[in-house]
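User: what does the whole thing look like in 3D?
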Amino acid sequence: MLNISQVNACYGESSVISGLDMEVNDHKIVCLIGRNGVGKSTTLKSIMGLVNTPSGSIKLNGTEMMKMATYDRVKLGIGYVPQGRDIFPQMTVQENLELGLHTAGKEKKVPDYIYDLFPILPEFAKRKGGDLSGGQQQQLAIARALVTGPEILILDEPTEGIQPSIIQDIGRAIKRVNQELGITVLIVEQYLEFVLDISDELYIMEKGSIVMQGKTKELPVEEIQKIMTE
Amino acid sequence: MTDLITTLFNGLSLSSIYLLVALGLAVTFGLMGVINMAHGEFIMIGAYMTYITQKIIGGNGSVAYLLSIPVAFLITFLLGCILEKTLITRLYGRKIDSLLATWGISLILQQAARSIFGSQGVNVNAPAFLKSGLTIGGVTFAFNRIFIIGLVIVCLVAVWLLMNKTVFGAKMRATMQNRAMAQCMGINSKKIDCITFGLGSGLAGVAGCSVALLGSVDSTVGQNYIVYSFMTVVLGGVGNLLGTVIGAMIIGFSSIFVEAYQSASIARAIVLLIIIIFLQFKPKGLFVIRSRSLDEE
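Assistant: Here's the predicted 3D structure for the full assembly of 527 residues, as structure tokens:
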């Protein structure tokens, strides 16, 4: 379980998130939504230790992570798929995937289920990561995060700039990862239809704090739509 | 004909020396983007290590010389790591600051060398097996020159294997391409930065061993090579080993060929002119790294 409590985050002097509380329960798919610039990505970066978080507490399964370096947080069992994918452009698809192997240190080769989830990957194994299309890069980024053997998978706008058919593939893959492997998923997203379809629980963010939360099925869809489009 | 072969061999020899001194810089400047003005001083330290090893071991110099190569690598590797941990690590992304700071380090190291060894140059005895040469059809190929060509090939292959065939190499490339994302893959990027900088410095130390064969060693010996090292890396295209090889060959061969028909100073001027004109048309060097995500930036 991932617990975030009273977290503040800032870029230099300007505070982006203040007093954020969130809980991501095990084996659930949790989505964090909101309009542009409300602090969704910053929330994820706070979890990863990529931004300044002067106060608060972020715990994974009870272990306090606030003072940990990013690479140590990853070793606790977090897989991160950043906005814009951040594939290593000059490395081959295979090399991108295999980087994650040394993190977990459990497996010697990329597990077969990853190729089962993303059948395009073996085809492109020898291509440079930077030569793939956006959708292919997104699939590679998710696969790469899974290779680290995470307990929780964190995705930042996985549908951004990706064609609808690939979005469906990605959605299916995320669901399978969650259901078959029991990996907890936390997604930041703006694409409401995708979110309503995939998530168990929802957090809605405005101006750096949570304004609504609950089980996706129980939340008022129209009100959410209003917040998202206002 | 013999003249031409001699010139070609001299060109190859000079290219190999430039390549060897630039190889470490191709790692620290090319891969890491650190402008390290003290690179020349690591070459100097390597050269002095050769001298010290020879002093301690004595004998005809062959064993001592061969031993001095790993010694010089280790010492400069460690010094590089220390410099990275104490100074460079605070200056990532601040190119001008790191230029100034490392220039300061360069002056300190030069003065330290003067204080320890005196301002008079010291001589390294060329080991016996490198003293003569191979004569084929009236052309003499000096063994020490051939040895340097061999040494640079060994270094080049070793660096290539390390970067492309090892786990450490993969982590290193990932860190250099995207530091934050490498951390998100669980890679301890600070450790990688430190070892990579050490590696570049260690290669400078090995270059120092070969520089020691070519003339007397004093505190400014590194200064003779630093400008050519930077030119080689920039000409080849920053961040590309093959580019560095070609860059060294362009500079080495053109120097020797102009020198064969004109004076050495004219040769320097013409080489600089070639580089200036070349960079006018290809400002990013010979080999430009191109990919989608880089083009978008």
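In plain terms: The interface with chain A takes residues 167, 170-171, 173-174, 177-178, 180-190, 289, 291-294 of chain B (CB under 8 Å). Chain B is about 75% helix and 5% strand.
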